[in-house]
Amino acid sequence: MSEQKVSVLEGFKTFLLRGNVIDLAVAVVIGAAFTQIVNAVVKGVINPLVGAFGTKNLDSYSSCIKGTCEVVNGEVDGIKILWGSVLGATLSFLITAAVVYFLMVLPMAKYLAKKAARDAAKEGAKEVVELSELEVLKEIRDALIAQSRGTRTGSTGSGPAPGTGTGSDRS
What we know:
The structure is a single chain. It is elongated and about 115 Å long. It is 68% helix and 10% strand. The longest helix has 67 residues, at 83-149. The N and C termini lie far apart (98 Å). It is built from three helices and two strands; from the N terminus they run ααββα. A two-stranded antiparallel ribbon has the order 1-2.
């Protein structure tokens, strides 16, 4: 039973030390801090802008669908719909989504597209180099085959055949 505990603990340690768990923890912490920033923007900027048309606190926007929605003896008389809270949460979501998209997703997509284009260009250049090397190797092969058969390829006939000399270098 102690062997199983050791293996479970070892597995848990491996799980915790895995890179994606640490990345996830960092993302959660950054996300929590980012949420505070967005909430501050909504409360400090958006709510006052909306408040120019009504109250500054979006939570106070509500409608009563049954009864008078007045507090009587500590209880609310009627059914109150707090649509201002939903509006505030929706604005927070939209601001968060816009910031994430424009500051993180869009620049990363552009970067990855440029990187893919560079990689494709490098791959194309590599293929051209490989093709030209392949052509040179084919020419060398053909020249060696032709030489072994006793004929020359690529010769223009302007010089003497190999090994024959011009006669002036013999004494």
